[in-house]
Amino acid sequence: MRLGFFSDAHGNIISTMQCMETMRALELDECFFLGDAIGYMPGGVEVLQLLTEEKIPCIMGNHEAMATGLLPLTQDRDRIYRIRPLLANMPASLLVCIKNSWPASKTLNVLGKNILMVHGRPSAPLHGYLHKNDQPSPEETAGVDVIVMGHTHRPFIQQFGRTLVINAGSCGLPRDIGNAPSFAVYDVQSAVAKIIRFKMDIESVINTWPIDSVHKSVISCMHR
Question: What SS3 class is residue 165?
Answer without folding.
Answer: strand
